[in-house]
Each structure stands twice: as structure tokens, then as C-alpha cells.
Amino acid sequence: MAKELAFVLINPYTVAKSRTGGVIARYISRTGLDFVAARMFAPHAELAHAYAEQIRNDLEVEPVIRPILADYVEREYGPDPATGQRKRVMMLLFEGDNAIQAVKDVTGTIRPTNTGESVRDTYGDYIMDAAGAVQYLEPAVFIGPNIKATGEALTLWARYTEECGGIVDTAGDVPTGETLEEALVIIKPDSFRFASARPGLIIDVFSRSGLRIVAAKIHRMTVAEAEDFYGPVRGVLREKLKGLVAERSAKAVAAELDMVIPEDVKGQLGELLGPRYGDNQFYQIIQFMTGRWGEGLVEEEKTKPGTSQCLLLVYAGVNAIDRIRSILGPTDPSKALPGSVRREFGENIMVNAAHASDSVENAKREMKITQVGADTVRPLVDTYYP
Predict the structure, then answer these.
(1) Which residue from 45, 53, 95, 236 has the fewest beta carbons nearer than 10 Å?
(2) SS3 state at 124
(3) Paired residues of 219 in beta bridges
(4) Residues 342, 336: contact at Cβ < 8 Å?
(5) Nearest to residue 149, comparing CAs of 40, 66, 79, 30?
(6) Whole-prediction pTM value?
(7) Contact between 52 and 77 (Cβ < 8 Å)
(8) Residue 96, Ramachandran bin (φ over 0: left; ψ between -120 and 50: alpha; else beta)
(9) Residues carrying CATH 3.30.70.141, the chain
(10) What pLDDT score does 64 carry?
(11) What CATH class does 3-220+309-384 carry?
(12) Are 253 and 269 in contact (CB under 8 A)?
């Protein structure tokens, strides 16, 4: 069976209500597909209208529902008519065998069954009056129900991915002003070892911050990026671990040679071996984040995408750095408060579920290194629909 590329568009209402994490959790865990791309959009009127027309002309959609859905997209995806401000839409791309049908099954029908089984059962609404006319519609997400509709929609959105996508911090529901901060969050590779709800559940925990997600990207960090990203940690490890190395190496030597190691010699062991051990710990972090052992690699190899996957998110709002980090918890999960991300999902100091920027300056540095606004949608779409 040939692989397919399927998409999910999380509607502005669903995104604004911070239901994004729950939606993502459903699709990853219930489809078993590879989650290969994510991108935030702020559609302008032209994109909203073009997508609405695609739906209006899709003969495979029920004739009664077709104009209702098209009108919904034109109204809810387009800018606010009063202010001209755009709305946030998140696109997810999934790849795998029979991906389009798998996504369709998890999404459910436009008319929810109210059983909670599908995404639309849980997050959508379809309310009719006594005469059977639709009074209120919220489909929660849009998908491509078949190969033709998927190809047309993806080709359309890919055409506008630079113009309307990336870091959408000027969207209408994102706070503005001098107090606005942006924090980079990385949901680390331990949440992507297998298809599970964990990434979405972590996003759900962060949602209590009240901040807005303004960028999203599935990323495979290169060794070069990881060395740059975690570069400030390297010097700290080289210095901080000298004492630990001095004690452990002195004990080992004393036991092996059956002799007492003088304090001055112990200090020399720390000075000699501490930096080396610090480098070893540094490259263990690099390996965890990239899936590759980076020490000794030539520059060409260091610039290749890693084998480990993570999800980058940018949260925007007032005091975003402190709000995100208070929800994240300290580096050591055992010292984190109950309900924090690292206490709930972390394993140890390195495998601790997520990273968050610790200052506005570092957030800018980290976002530049990871190119969080870069387009990963268009290359995938071009592969399937050249």
C-alpha cells in the first residue's frame, strides 16, 4: 500500500479555545501515522475564499452541508470584517499507509454522534432547529476526505505558506505591546519514541498559561544546531563536574591500587578528567536531541537532519517566559511540583519531556537556531503533488 500525505486544519475557534493539544493527541495516538509537519497560519481573505470555493465545489460533500461548510470557512478563516485582524489556524501533516482514510476515521462526521469517539464528537457542534435547519455549526477541524480533495487543498495552502504562515504573532487574538514576550517550547524526542498522546497532553498542560501558540514546527535537529543551541551548557558542565569526577576517580584509583589518594592529587584528577567528562555529558544531550553522537563528526555530517523528532512551539503573551517555565518545572523532574510538565512526563534530568526558553534573549537565540518559522509544509506537498 502506497504512502499518503493527509492534513488536518485546526479551526480558529478550536485553536482559540486551547483545544489544540487534545486534537493533536487524538490524531497521533489513534491513527498511528507519522506526524511529519506542523505550521501556524493566519489566512488572509484571498486564502479563506479560495479554500471555501474548493469546499463549495467538492461534489463528494453532501449538497445540503456543502454551502454551510463553505460559508463557515469564508467567515471563520477570513480576517475579522470589522478590524481586518487575522485568525490563527494550525495545519498538521500526517504520512503513512492509507493516511487520508485514517485521519477521516478519527475526525468523524460533520454531524457529531455525541459519543466522544471522534474529534468532532468531542470538539465540534452541529445544532439544528425543530424544522431540521442548521442553527449552529462548529466542525472543530477540516480535513481532506479523499485523495482529490486532499491534493487540491494541500496545493492551495502550500501556495500561501510563506505569505500567510510561520510566526503569526500579529493575529488578532495575540496580545500586543511592550510587555509581549515570546517563549520557545520544545517537546523533546522522548515524546515521539512511538505514536502516543503525550505531545498533545503536554500541550494541554501548557494551555493553562493562557498564552497563544503563534508558531509550530516538527523538527529534526542537526548536530550543528544542537551544539549551538546547548553551547552555553558545555562550559558549565566542564566546570561543574570537576568535583564529582575528582571524588569518583580518586575512589576508583584508590580501590584499584589499594592506596590513599592525597587531596592535591584528587584535585588534579578533577582538573584533568572533569572537562572531559563534561564534554561526554554534553554529547549525550546532543545524542538525545538529534539521535546521533556528534563528537568527532565532520562538518558535513553535522549539518544533516537528525534521526530524532521534536515539536517546536512558540507561545506569545504577557510575561510568557515566566508563565511557561512555572508550568514546565525545574530540570530535575523529581523536584518539580505535581501538575507540572516535567513532574508528569519527565524521567530524569536529561529526559525531561520539554525545554522552554529562560529569557527573552535566549528565546530569540533559540528561535533563530531552530528556524521555527521555516516552511516544512511546501517541500512535503511538492513531493506528493509536484
Answers:
(1) 236
(2) coil
(3) 310
(4) yes
(5) 66
(6) 0.93
(7) yes
(8) left
(9) 3-220+309-384
(10) 84
(11) alpha beta
(12) yes
